[in-house]
Amino acid sequence: MNENPLVSVIMSVYNEKTEEISYVINSILNQTYANIEFIIMYDNPNNLELFHELTEMVQDDERCRLLKNKENLGPAKSLNRGLKSAKGKYIARMDADDYSFPERIYKQVEYMEKILILIF
Length: 120
Hints:
The protein has 4 helices and 4 strands. The chain has a 4-stranded parallel sheet with strand order 3-2-1-4, with helices on both faces. The chain has one domain: Spore Coat Polysaccharide Biosynthesis Protein SpsA, Chain A, CATH 3.90.550.10. With 120 residues, it is α/β, with parallel strands linked by helices. This is Glycosyltransferase 2-like domain-containing protein. It comes from Enterococcus villorum.
């Protein structure tokens, strides 16, 4: 891979447990492929405690953006809102109860870049 295109990872969070969401977030932030932006859509405006915990988890990492919906939109609309703010060449979707192996993004970008070379 000659270049390192930006990958936007988008995840919607509603009412997950702090320990679980911390594990999920760290699985993205600890990727071997570092050129990512991690857009976390907070879709539960009534639970400010979890929102503040999420803020503390990601505030020191410039790759993270935590966006709070004014009202509960549901997963699809929330993710679409995150998609509108994405800047990456590629979009990766993450669920709030998933785990990503460390080379997930690297392998996906490597594959997509090979496909682009074959097409053009």
